[in-house]
Amino acid sequence: MVSISRYKIIFKCSEHLFLVIATCPSECVCPSCGAPLCCHDHRERHVLLKSGIHVTLLVPRCRCLQCRRLHTLLPDFVVPYKHYEASVIQGVVDGKDLSACPAEDSTLRRWRSEFRRMAPYAETLLRKVQDAAYPLFGASLLAFLRQKFPRRWMRSVLPLLSAHGFFPATRFACCAGSACGTLVPIEERSGST
Ligand SMILES: [Zn+2]
């Protein structure tokens, strides 16, 4: 599973689907070995938006050119292995008004619990990205991100986590049409993440 932040979405009227096309080749790399990914096929992904509308995305699935693993590319408003849009889950984590959130209480508790488990990983990766420019025992970078980008901090964290293999390893958590060119059928030899 690879979370991407640069993409375009095309509505396919005849099929009532939204086709997701990655637009940044540098994001299309294998989280397992770092090699480039090549588009293999597409799969449907259902998402419940903040507006309450169910949509079906057609997300690309890519094959790693080196280790041959398959990875699904997910736009960053989709949380891996979650039905709800990222902004809905973020609102719950942030303690926002939940009146518009149709999820059950047990689901809300699980999202909060999962965030508490995810936070140390995100903090570590954010510090790694900052390298030596940030003091080791300084204030939380994740807290800073949440404060500076209150409406979309989760969408900033998801690609970072997926790029470092967080989601496949923990079950929390798709090649790019335009980025990699046309669809290239490749013989399937391994499972996908
Ligand atoms: Zn690989």
Summary keywords:
6-stranded mixed β-sheet; 193 residues; alpha/beta; globular; 6 helices; binds zinc ion; disordered C terminus
The end-to-end span amounts to 5 Å
What binds here, in terms of ligands, is: zinc ion
State which percent range the strand residues make up.
15-25%
**DSSP strand tally:** 6
Mean pLDDT score, rounded?
A: 81
Class derived from helix and strand content: alpha/beta
Helix-residue proportion: 25-40%
What sort of overall outline do the alpha carbons produce when their principal axes are compared?
Answer: globular
Residue stretches low in confidence (pLDDT < 50, at least 5 long) are: 169-191
Order of helices and strands: EEEEEEHHHHHH
| Rounded radius of gyration (Å) | 17 Å
What's the number of helices? 6
Q: Mind summarizing the main beta sheet?
A: 6 strands, mixed
Provide the number of structural domains. Answer: 1
Structure description:
It is a single chain. With 193 residues, the protein is α/β, with parallel strands linked by helices. It has one domain (2-180). The protein has helices spanning 86-93, 105-130, 141-148, 153-163, 166-170, 177-180; strands spanning 2-4, 7-12, 17-22, 37-48, 54-64, 70-75. The protein is globular. The relative contact order is 0.24. The structure holds zinc ion. Residues 30, 32-33, 35, 64, 66-67, 69 line the site of zinc ion.
Give a short summary of the structure.
The chain has 193 residues and is α/β, with parallel strands linked by helices. It has helices at residues 86-93, 105-130, 141-148, 153-163, 166-170, 177-180, and strands at 2-4, 7-12, 17-22, 37-48, 54-64, 70-75. It has one domain (2-180).
